[in-house]
Design goal:
The complex is a heterodimer of chains A (about 550) and B (about 475). Chain A is of the alpha/beta class and about 550 residues long. Chain A has 3 domains: about 140 residues, P-loop containing nucleotide triphosphate hydrolases (Rossmann fold, 3-Layer(aba) Sandwich), CATH 3.40.50.300; about 200 residues, 3-Layer(aba) Sandwich (Rossmann fold); about 70 residues, no CATH class. Helix content of chain A is about 35%, strand content about 25%. Chain A is built from 21 helices and 20 strands. In chain A, the strands form 4 sheets. In chain A, strands 6-7-8-3-9-10 form a 6-stranded mixed beta sheet, with helices on both faces. Chain A is globular and about 70 Å long. Chain A starts with 9 loop residues before the first strand and ends with a helix. By secondary structure, chain B is mainly alpha-helical. Chain B has 2 domains: about 220 residues, no CATH class; about 210 residues, Orthogonal Bundle (MetI-like fold). In chain B, about 70% of the residues lie in helices and about 5% in strands. Chain B has 16 helices and 5 strands. The chains are: A alpha/beta (about 550), B mainly alpha (about 475). Chains A and B meet through strand 16, helix 14 and helix 16 of A and helix 13 and helix 14 of B.
């Protein structure tokens, strides 16, 4: 980790890459220059669609069918990779350049054991065979810190957890003893605590093996922890390259400054509006001993042999006009809880009171349907949250048609247009299809759809996780604004503690189906009581804490 | 002339009307128009569509039935048997039967006979045909020249018809796009129109010229020869078009509602409904389909034999047997589509927009109609178009083992079935098989090419 060496290991000059679309070339990478020195950690940062992954694929010459490298040069230790025949390039990939992709789920072959997949790399590059290969495989798995490496060798990918799979991916990337390791969003699909572990593994390995690490990420928090140098990419161009320390102290380009400012930080909860805290707010939603179990069925007759306790005795109170954040890692049951509160999933035990009315006792179908209006949901993925075959206007008025059939056609249309304006979209968005909108705009439409039936409570299930930092900030601002104007209450489900600090009045930390800690945001984030909360907070990159 | 409507006629027109209505509905929806626009830009698809349209036109004309007028009945074979508009137009072809086999374009029969000679003795030789080449004085010397002349004349007439049709189409394009007709002709000729008009018109030209020549020939010859009882093979194979089309379309009439209702219900409601439907189709799938079809066809035969008075005419019986064949083919064929729809619905019902609709209090039927159905519709379209050609072929196979359509119904399957014995003759009678093969092959190939284009355009995994 000596910073830029005199002869850079990887030198990319004036790289231009485009995609053929209907006879035209759409530029994805537009004249990119950078270098990665031997043993150095270089981070390429940018939002989705900025061309950072395409840059990596161009260097590896793994572009999709319609991708073309238009001009430029890529030199690995002085050798131009773009001029190599494909046969020689196959010896570079995996041998001299190792790659880790974002999703360990799809990057591993599900029908081969971990050992076979690592052995394949060793054999292909002629490094080890037979016994020696088996020994080396074991050594690699130990290196990446996989618990019980001997068992992992004969395990299939589906038998491992997400974090373990990503470790296997790293082991495969390291098998060729590369000089350069490209890590494309290596931790995006993982939880915070796992992310911290994987990053630590990468860091140690880099020190031990002295290879260069080219990190591609959208998360400045990771960059601050890992990188020696940073390059910020925006719409196919690198707008700023700088030493890591200098970058975080004095970002020069306005876009870099914007990225840094928009980053949700834990400290945001200090300057929180606790103005509402004078009078004790009235309770809107009350949950007691709430339990949701999934039956595990086995055998020909599908007998129930066990229960998965997704939500295991949760008690919550959500005050009117406030935001309660539900925090936890994937699989802790927070989404299940959110859906069960909306009665999209049946709960097994417990009491659910909305505004004093007990909702857990099933009434007639019609009564149940009428009680749906006050509680609505906004989902994580704005792409699958809307029927692609319906017009935006029809999507928004769907709830009105179902719950308020008495409203006429004209006033319904008026309502839709007002709603679109209130979420910051033009009224004529009504007659367009969802695919014509960007991710952030779609999330706005989803919010408008939820607001159409005039709910008092919105369950927001990771509404900003699929969005870029700058869009994320806009959506959070919209939610805060709507809360002030309409007096909405939010149950904000998220794994991102930075977002929690920005928006929540109170936090509940969920772990294995139970709530382990609950309290005002500042108290939970700054003075955590439960060890699990402390572990979560410790895993958050330092930049996000400051 | 008293018009009459067979069961299959009525249902065929109903299917056509529904397809037409569907097209009208889809034209209004942008997300349906987009993939169909891709289909309309594809040359193989549109050329296939021209071919399919010609087959369809023949099928429609052959589905308008009536009883010929009583006074003209004397000349017709069975006075009380209804005939179709196509029979009416092809009148000569239907009635000009020879004694037995004759080769295509032959003037003499295929087998030798004892012929009376001028001096009252007998001669062992090939007799002249009653109709085929009857106008020739000396077939040996005149036949080839006559065939060429007639062919050219027919092709010329066909070409003329094509010119009129092409001019009409050009005028229509010019009117709809408000361009001078000269420009339109120029652009079509250079292949610069968004729709592949040039290729479509060339296909039409080929069909017109070929059709014209065959029409002209068939006035004096048996273009595809004659079969065992001397009937014209060309007439048989043209009549078979309706049978093929009916089996391809009416069967979907049975499969679609079953597959849609059961597939969506199983996937959406899960639980006991899912169990029941799954058991139903796995059970149905494990019975050999040929057995089911044979049983159903034999049952109808027995039923019709017992209630002879209700089925007065031969045509009515043949028609009902065709209908039952379609029904039973449909009943054995819905499982595949149902399984696909169930799987897709299982996936869709967990999607967030369906969850959101439930949170908004939308009822189940609303979710099924507005969210699930439109999103599985591409599967329905693809599988219907793909199944069509399979069903046309299935008819041929079933007729071959005698559980297909009625033996009196003209169908490619029956023609191929009879060819089994004809090919064993020495010298072999090859023309029945060849005619059935050419006509069936053209239809199935066109349907398959069209289905390919439809799948490419509608399947979200293939689009981009």
């Amino acid at each position: 980790m000596t910073g830029a060496a005199s002869v850079p290991l990887l030198q990319v000059a004036n790289l231009r890459t485009g995609f053929l679309q209907g006879g035209e070339v759409v530029r994805a990478v537009d004249g990119v220059d950078f270098h990665v020195g031997a043993g150095e950690t270089f981070a390429l940062v940018g939002e989705s669609g900025s061309g950072k992954s395409v840059t990596a694929l161009s260097v590896l010459r793994l572009l999709p069918q319609n991708g073309r490298i238009l001009s430029g040069s890529v030199a690995l230790a002085g050798e131009d990779l773009l001029q190599l025949p494909e046969l020689m390039m196959g010896r570079v990939r995996g041998r001299r350049i190792g790659v880790i992709f974002q999703d360990p789920q799809t990057s591993l072959n599900p029908v081969l054991t971990v050992g076979t997949q690592i052995g394949e790399v060793l054999a292909w590059h002629g490094l080890r065979r037979g016994r020696a290969a088996a020994d080396r495989t074991l050594e690699l798995l130990e290196q990446v810190g996989l618990p019980e490496p001997r068992r992992a060798v004969s395990a299939y990918p589906h038998q491992l957890s997400g974090g373990m799979r990503q470790r296997v991916m790293i082991a495969i990337a390291l098998a060729g003893e590369p000089e350069l390791l490209i890590a494309d969003e290596p931790t995006t699909a993982l939880d915070v605590t796992l992310q911290a572990q994987i990053l630590a593994v990468l860091k140690t390995l880099q020190c031990d093996l002295g290879m260069a690490l080219w990190l591609i990420t959208h998360d400045l928090g990771i960059v601050a922890e890992m990188a020696d140098r940073v390059a910020v990419m925006q719409s196919g161009r690198i707008v700023e390259t700088a030493d890591c320390k200098r970058f975080f102290a004095r970002p020069e380009h306005p876009y870099s400054r914007q990225l840094l400012e928009r980053l949700p930080r834990l400290s945001a909860c200090r300057n929180h509006r606790d103005a509402g805290g004078d009078a004790p707010p009235l309770t809107l939603l009350e949950v007691r001993d709430f339990k949701v179990y999934y039956p595990v069925r086995k055998g020909v007759f599908q007998r129930v042999v066990d229960q998965v306790r997704a939500v295991d005795g949760v008690s919550l109170e959500l005050p009117r006009g406030r935001t309660l954040a539900l925090v936890g890692e994937s699989g802790c049951g927070k989404t299940t809880l959110g859906k069960a509160l909306l009665r999209l999933i049946d709960h097994n035990e417990g009491e659910l009171r909305y505004d004093g009315v007990n909702l857990s006792r099933p009434g007639s179908d019609d009564a149940q349907r009428r009680l749906r209006a006050p509680m609505q949901i906004v989902f994580q993925d704005p792409f699958s949250a809307m029927n692609p075959r319906m017009l935006v206007g029809d999507i928004i008025e769907e709830g009105l048609r179902a719950l308020r059939p008495e409203i006429g056609h004209d006033s319904r249309r008026e309502r839709v247009e007002t709603l679109l304006v209130s979420v910051g979209l033009p009224p004529d968005a009504r007659i367009r299809y969802p695919h014509e909108f960007s991710g952030g705009q779609r999330q706005r439409i989803c919010i408008a759809r939820a607001l159409a039936v005039e709910p008092r409570l919105l369950v927001c299930d990771e509404p900003t996780s699929a969005l870029d930092v700058s869009v994320q900030a806009q959506i959070l601002a919209l939610l805060v604004d709507l809360q002030r104007r309409l007096g909405l209450s939010y149950l904000f489900i998220t794994h991102d503690l930075g977002v929690v600090a920005e928006i929540a009045h109170e936090v509940a930390v969920m772990y294995q189906g139970r709530i382990v800690e609950q309290g005002p945001t500042a108290q939970v984030l700054l003075a955590p009581a439960h060890p699990y909360t402390r572990r979560l907070l410790a895993a958050v990159p330092k930049l996000r804490c400051g | 002339m008293i018009p009459t409507l067979f069961w299959t006629d009525g249902l065929f027109f109903l299917v056509l009307a529904m397809a037409g209505a569907l097209v009208l509905v889809m034209r209004r929806r942008e997300h349906f128009r987009r993939p169909w626009r891709t289909v309309s830009r594809s040359t193989p698809a549109m050329v296939s569509l021209v071919v399919i349209a010609v087959y369809l036109a023949v099928g429609i004309v052959d589905s308008v039935h009536f009883f010929p007028r009583a006074d003209a009945a004397g000349s017709a074979a069975g006075a009380n048997e209804p005939i179709s508009l196509l029979d009416h137009w092809l009148g000569g072809l239907r009635t000009r039967t020879e004694k037995t086999y004759s080769e295509p374009f032959a003037a003499y029969a295929y087998a030798k006979e004892h012929l009376p000679t001028a001096d009252g003795g007998q001669r062992w030789d090939y007799p002249r045909l009653t109709y085929g080449g009857a106008h020739l004085v000396d077939p040996e010397s005149e036949r080839v020249r006559d065939i060429a002349v007639t062919g050219v004349r027919g092709a010329g007439q066909g070409g003329l018809m094509w010119l009129i049709a092409a001019a009409g189409i050009a005028a229509l394009i010019a009117r709809s796009r408000r361009e001078p007709i000269g420009r339109v002709v120029h652009r079509v000729a250079r292949g610069q129109t968004p729709l592949p008009w040039r290729a479509m018109l060339l296909t039409l030209l080929l069909l017109c010229v070929g059709g014209g020549a065959i029409a002209e020939w068939s006035a004096h010859y048996h273009v595809f020869g004659t079969d065992k009882v001397g009937a014209d093979v060309l007439y048989q194979t043209i009549k078979s078009i309706r049978t093929g089309l009916l089996i391809g379309t009416l069967t979907t009439f049975v499969t679609l509602p079953l597959a849609l209702v059961l597939g969506l219900a199983a996937g959406y409601f899960r639980g006991w409904a899912d169990d029941l439907i799954q058991y139903l189709y796995t059970t149905l799938n494990s019975i050999p389909h040929v057995l089911l079809i044979a049983a159903a066809i034999l049952l109808t035969q027995v039923y019709m034999a017992k209630h002879e008075e209700a089925f007065a005419s031969l045509a009515l019986r043949a028609d009902l047997r065709l209908l039952f064949l379609c029904l039973i083919l449909g009943l054995t064929n819905w499982t595949g589509l149902c399984r696909l729809l169930r799987a897709e619905t299982l996936k869709l019902r967990e999607l967030e927009y369906v969850q959101a609709a439930r949170a908004l209090g939308v009822r189940d039927h609303g979710i099924l109609l507005r969210h699930i159905l439109p999103n599985v519709f591409h599967i329905v379209l693809i599988s219907v178009v793909l199944d069509f050609s399979g069903l046309v072929l299935a008819e041929a196979v079933l007729s071959y083992i005698n559980i297909g359509v009625d033996p009196t119904t003209e169908s490619w399957g029956n023609m191929i079935n009879s060819a089994r014995l004809e090919l064993a003759r020495e010298p072999p009678v090859w023309w029945s098989l060849a005619a059935a093969f050419v006509f069936m092959f053209t239809l199935v190939l066109a349907a398959n090419l069209f289905a390919d284009a439809v799948r490419d355009a509608l399947d979200p995994r293939r689009a981009e």
